[in-house]
From TrEMBL:
GO molecular function, one term: acyltransferase activity, transferring groups other than amino-acyl groups
Family annotation (PROSITE patterns): GNAT
Entry annotated with the keyword Transferase: yes
Protein name: Acetyltransferase
The N-acetyltransferase domain, residue ranges: 9-170
Keyword Transferase: yes
Lineage, uppermost ranks: Bacteria, Pseudomonadati, Pseudomonadota, Alphaproteobacteria, Caulobacterales
Sorted UniProt keywords: Transferase
Length: 188
């Protein structure tokens, strides 16, 4: 199991035990407004959880659940993904994705978790770059992506919405996260 830790956070691969936290997060319309545009049902969240667990099994990487180390509180998720999205242009590199519950936004936790995931990706993946897609209306995620080294390279229509495509060169600039550690076991 690939577990990452930072000064304040512990990142563990998404597991069945995360279902209640995931259901609460994905039902929150404030959280999903830039991602899906609506909250998700328990059934839809269950399918996402199964996809995430399977992603780790098949690819050896995937979404991590982010928790505060001190309290165990569920913060959100960050991941290295291969979702084979149906869009033009298609992604040709690992995708990074992240989301933090509204209660934890504005506390630099998304940045801290994303930096840990990028450090892991730079160390364990051979691809020369990573990509991500962000709604043009999601200014906070765009600022975060740019802060950790992502730069826009195009636009795509994804499921009827325009998204901005970003790329980051492997080993690109990120701000240092004090105390970041990688406790990796298993595939990856």
């Amino acid at each position: 199991m690939t577990v990452l830790s930072t000064e304040r956070l512990t990142l563990t691969p998404v597991a069945a035990g995360d279902m209640d936290d995931l259901t609460a997060l994905w039902a929150d319309a404030d959280f999903t407004r830039h991602i899906m545009g609506r909250g998700l049902s328990e059934e839809e969240v269950w399918f996402r959880l199964l996809r995430d667990v399977g992603h780790w099994q098949v690819k050896g990487y995937g979404n991590w659940s982010i928790r505060e180390t001190a309290t165990g509180a569920y913060v959100g998720s960050v991941g290295v993904l291969d979702y084979r999205r149906d869009m033009t242009p298609p992604f040709d590199a690992p995708e990074l994705g992240w989301g933090v519950a509204p209660a934890f936004q504005g506390r630099s936790m998304a940045r801290e978790a994303l930096q840990a995931a990028l450090a892991w990706t730079d160390k364990h993946r051979a691809e020369p770059r990573t990509v991500c897609m962000i709604s043009p209306d999601n200014a906070a995620s765009i600022r975060l992506a740019e802060r950790v080294g992502y730069r826009p390279y195009g636009h795509a229509d994804y499921k009827g919405s325009v998204v901005t495509l970003f790329e980051r060169v492997k080993g690109g600039p990120t701000e240092a996260v004090g105390g970041a550690a990688d406790r990796t076991g298993g595939a990856g």
